[in-house]
């Protein structure tokens, strides 16, 4: 009985978000929308970008309120929070006997994060916003992180 009540509360809290996503992203698994798969991908990526912006903003506010530096908040909460869903998906497919899919999911998501998550904003900055400009990277840990990723590949 208590589990049913929690499911109802969860449904009530998530319904507005699910409704907005339902209205803005075509379901390409249905025959009617099969040809719109690229639009589904692009809109899903835009929604993820919006959610990521709010997540980073809230973590920054919480860190500032509690007196925790942005670097620590980013490494612990943001990095771990974005890796847990990939880890869960990899565990699920590995249990189904699809080990190669689990490994490709783990590596692929990080490669996508670096190439799209960093490459697209930097590309827009240097090609569309301020043509010919350079992007200054103010992070000592970025080279180390990219080296670890390339080493794991």
TrEMBL record:
The chain crosses the membrane at residues 12-29, 36-59, 71-94. It catalyses: Ca(2+)(out) + K(+)(out) + 4 Na(+)(in) = Ca(2+)(in) + K(+)(in) + 4 Na(+)(out). GO terms for molecular function: calcium channel activity; calcium, potassium:sodium antiporter activity; symporter activity. It is a multi-pass membrane protein. The keyword S-adenosyl-L-methionine does not apply. It holds the Pfam family Na_Ca_ex. GO terms for cellular component: plasma membrane. InterPro entries: K/Na/Ca-exchanger, Na_Ca_Ex, NaCa_Exmemb, NCX_ion-bd_dom_sf. Signal peptide: none annotated. Residues 37-150 form the Sodium/calcium exchanger membrane region domain. This is NCKX4 protein. The gene is Slc24a4.
